[in-house]
Amino acid sequence: MNDHDAHKEVPWRLTAGSDPGVIAFSGEIDFSVTPAVRERLWELVGKAGKHIELDLADLTYIDSSGLALLLELRKQLAEADRTVAIRSISPQVRKLFNLTQLSDLFGLPD
């Protein structure tokens, strides 16, 4: 591995938001990173309360594996009597949510 590879930026990031229960996504999520995203997501969900809000404002791309992960999150939270909603979303990801008719499932703001 050369120095360039060592400092190569990860194409995605998940962080706890400034408000309790907020999980912020940024970058690009596709099938090649979904397993790592899943691991980080469950770590953050474990520290969050009953209601979780997703901040997707800085998410520039998500493919079907990423959408499947969000649906899995919603299902598992519902089974635990917890909820999830989208707080904010980037225009390009909003188009995908509208196209796949997932907007209502996540309480997507207008």
From TrEMBL:
InterPro entries assigned to the protein according to its UniProt record, in alphabetical order: Anti-sigma_ant, STAS_dom, STAS_dom_sf
Domain STAS, first and last residues per copy: 22-110
A GO molecular-function descriptor: anti-sigma factor antagonist activity
Family under the similarity heading: Belongs to the anti-sigma-factor antagonist family.
PANTHER family: ANTI-SIGMA FACTOR ANTAGONIST TM_1081-RELATED-RELATED
This protein's name: Anti-sigma factor antagonist
